[in-house]
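Researcher: For the annotation table, I need structure tokens for SMC-Scp complex subunit ScpB. Please keep the output clean. Sequence:
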Amino acid sequence: MAVAEAEREDEEDWDADEALARACRIVEALLFASVQPLLAEDLAKSVPANVPIERVIAELQQTYALRGVTLQRVAGGYAFRTAPDLAYLLAPEAEPPRKLSRAALETLAIIAYHQPVTRAEIEEIRGVATAKGTLDILLEAGWVRLRGRRRSPGRPVTFGTTPAFLDHFGLDRIDDLPGLEELKGAGFIEGRLAKDLTVPVPDDDPGLRDDEDPLGDLFTPLDDGDAS
């Protein structure tokens, strides 16, 4: 009896190992074929039901830990990326990074930290007017999206960041952006600071806020600046 039970347990373990191995191959193939990070829940739809996707991901991360590519968590999902210590080898072949003007960088940072935000609010924070082309560049890059319309006169469009923004800058979540102390430590903020200076905790929740309406017809006239 004991021998029969042991043989049955061995067979069950073998079946579990086989299922895990197959699940790992499936997820590995999906990730290599995808041009963008894939969510764990989406990957789970393709693996055997009796294999937890968390175990599959952990197994692959361990398998690739010392290889030329590693499995990393990016933009809330998972993707294979070049091992950090080998990135320099691909630098000559890599597509040159998109160079943004100072205005575009400032606008992107304001959107990332203050979203949802309108053009007029961006200009108020920057203290200068924002050219329409600046926002067009960020929209074309896929790092910024139109969220909705603010419930205020003119119903101006609100802007927010995208998963592509997180992916490009190697962030898993929007709140991985540095806070005030981290910015000071990195030398981005110097000198004496105003007592009321704060860096907001960013939030890219895709759901509309209480003061936002759906975009609706984008071809209706907009009040781009909320005023002026």
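Researcher: And a one-line annotation?
Model: The first helix runs from residue 2 to 33.
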